[in-house]
Amino acid sequence: MRKKHLSAVMLCTATVIGFAGLSATAAQAAPRPDAKADFNGDGYADLAVGVPGATVGGKAKAGYVNVVWGGRSGLGKHGSSTVSQDTAGVPGHAEKGDGFGRTVVPADMNGDGITDIVVGTPDEDSGTMLSAGTVTVLWGSKSGIKGGFTAVNGAYSDSRLGDLLTTGDYDGDKDQDIVLSRKGEETGGVALRPGPFKAGSPSDLKPIASWHFNRPVAVTSADFDADGRDDLAVSYGDGEITGTDVLSHPETGTRPWKEKWGIAEYSNSLAAGDFDGDGTVDLALGNIRPSSESEGDNFCPDTFGGSIALAYGKSGTTLGGPRSCTNQNSPGVGGEDETGDGFGTRLAVGNLDRDGVDELIAGSEYETVGTAKNAGSYWTLASAGTGKPLVGPSRSQNSAGVPGTAEAGDRFGAAVATGDFNGDGYPDTAIGAPGEDSAKGGVWYARTPKDGPNPAQVSLTPGTLGLSGAHKYGSVLGR
Fold first, then answer.
1. How confident is the model at residue 253 (pLDDT cuts 50, 70, 90)?
2. What is the pLDDT of residues 203-235, one digit of tens each?
């Protein structure tokens, strides 16, 4: 049965944010943000780069995680550290085809005030069980990454645990939990690995939802209903039944998770933020895909190059505000709507100008730039008012101040992330281009200016970072 769409309500008074040439009218300057991905506790955000295709100890595609350290000069000037399953204290062993670092999520998993890294390795074998998957927590410390902890192992072949990951406190017990994807013989689903994460803690998975002949494609977490506990947003597709739901943990462990909001369409990427500055959490759905069961009443009109949908929050509800759609045909959005662009296939959130209203960073790795197919671009999108399409410019490697040249297959925008990497109080952006330099890859660091024009970006490549064995660097960024 088809899900009902969220009904639109009357347009709220516009709150225009101070970004991309717009002036702030309602939002006040936000306090300096904490570094949410600070793996050594020095106050600067760091960047976790998953490199699942990396060669480790001669083992192809064993994979590693590279941490690029932030500092006063931003990314690229303060070194980096590489962690694999051959690193002392990290569970497991580097093996051919493991793909360690397929998913990386920064979160403080033990409550010590220093960010850790949750790593998904869905192709990890366990004894005779092939691609059972594993999820590992790498511990942050004052001296950097120090060892790790196995959160959960797959219980059967092809379960592929951890292809998708998100974290939050869903049950309200003050411990961080992990929601992860898993695969069955004819199903795909998501499950909960509750905290705490320490020796002797139960690692049994608790099912949340599953779909026959289908799979989850995107997840994120936020407190969408303002009850003090995190909720799960999950998008599932590629089967007969598609959709995007917001689910809340039950009051008691014996009840199923409760659906608080849902639509029939699914999305390649999900991100939560306050995009209109009203104090409620909104949900962005990148490259939203129409459902075969939506009977023409789609959340967003189908476009050649894709659309980004926004479901706005409203006090006392879960995403009960207006909705909007943004694509490359929208006024004030750079680029052209072309078949297969995948507009918003990757999303990240940051209040770049600190006016209290979040911006949405949208990557489209398949964007054609000039005649270069799959060269890729990204957009910094800002609110033009609740319920209105977002606005903002696009940037590619042909843009002023961006190192390199847009070339076919670079896939600039295949991963996006934000963080205050130079500690000036303004979140910056990191953009991955795994196809750069014959698929060695790279990450572009863009500092957010306090005022004036955008400064030149910095490219971080395996060569400039002194990395060995890297392949498609920049395909996975922690956010």
1. low
2. 999 999 999 888 999 999 999 999 999 999 999
Q: Is residue 293 part of a domain?
A: yes
Q: Report yes or no: 138 and 100 within 8 Å, Cβ to Cβ.
A: no
- Rg, C-alpha atoms of the chain: 21
The total of structural domains in the chain comes to: 1
By residue count, the chain amounts to 479
The answer to whether residue 419 sits within a structural domain is yes
Q: What is the pLDDT of residues 264-323, one digit of tens each?
A: 999 999 999 999 999 999 999 999 988 766 555 678 887 789 999 999 999 999 999 999
pTM of the model: 0.92
pLDDT band at 20 (very low <50, low <70, confident <90, very high): very low
How many Å apart are CA 383 and CA 391, to the nearest integer? 7
In a domain, 151, yes or no: no
CATH number at residue 300: 2.120.10
The Cα-based distances of 304 to 297, 299, 307, 338 in angstroms read 17, 15, 9, 5
Q: Is residue 189 a contact partner of residue 210, using CB atoms and an 8 Å limit? A: yes
**Residue 158: CA atoms inside 13 Å, Cβ hemisphere, count?**
5
Encode 376-388: b = buried (16+ Cβ within 10 Å), e = exposed.
bbbbbbbbbbbbb
Q: Output DSSP code: residue 378.
A: E
Which structure tokens are listed for 246?
């917001």
Pick 336 or 216 by higher pLDDT. 216
Identity of the residue numbered 266: Y
Q: Which residues have a Cβ under 8 Å from the Cβ of 317 and sit 6 or more positions away? A: 225
d(CA 439, CA 365): 14
- For residue 461, is it within any domain? yes
Separation of alpha carbons 408 and 412, rounded Å: 10
Q: Domain limits at 232?
A: 167-477
